[in-house]
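Support reply, case 0932

Customer input (verbatim):
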Amino acid sequence: MSKRVFSLICAVSCSLLWGTAFVAQDMGMDYIGPYTFSAVRLVLGFITLLPFFFIFEFKKVKDTKLNFKVIIGYFFLLGFFLAGGNILQQISLIYTDVANSAVFTVLYVVIVPIIAYFMFSKKIHKTVWPSVLMCLIGGLLLSELNNLRVRYGDTLVVIGAFFWAFHIVFISKFLKIFNFPITIASFQCLTAALISLIPAFSFEYISFRMLSLEAAELLYAGVLSSGIAFMLQIFGQQNLSPAPVAIIFSLEGVFGSIAAWIMLDQFLNEFKILGIIIILSAVIFSQIAPMYDKRKYGRN
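Our regenerated output:
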């Protein structure tokens, strides 16, 4: 199997785990708060990945000459963006439904080239702007404008999409100087978990009894969606350029919406279905079109 095919399989699998995890996230806050859920799932993700780190990469990392200040700096950045994205996404599920949260999350695919333009002076393809307009239209169809709770929840997800966008950008940058996917996945989870524990201990009551009542949801979101999926994400980004891999990651919105419809009976009316189609079309369009002008608008 070629490295490219392997990365493709990893990216699709990652999207499936991310998308279906929205259901676990929505069901996992009956007895614990959003900060606690986010922190615990990230702790479980780190614990899940730790054996893989020691088996496959510990010796290689140990034998590599590294600039630890730069490495620690990247881990802090990745952890911060990962914690912020997770927390905002988790809180949003209190106010809006899974379909909205899942689809608005994939707006990071449109945001990524904008960040690359303003922060790294990368030329931005003209198709991004109509894509943004399409996303706004799709967002209006998805969001219930007369429901302040839903609008607040949707706003949190959109802000969170910026965190996910920065996360993707800096993973691509980090892989160029530190090509150890399992190590990155492991310790970004640890850093994000430590950051998330601060508001969890500050604003919420944490007990093992309450956590045990949400064990199934935490295990799915922690072991699979945080641990395994983040490792698959980095393997996907390792051998695929950001444009095609971002298209694959955007499928998490589709998987999330379908899973919520099947498992949570969160009915999608014709306007919401149209909104989902428009947003996903915008995401795909914004990524496919620049591929034809790759030499001029290449992204790193």
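We compared this against your earlier run and they match. Two observations from our side: The chain has a mean pLDDT of 86. The chain has 14 helices and no strands. Please reopen the case if you see a mismatch on your end.
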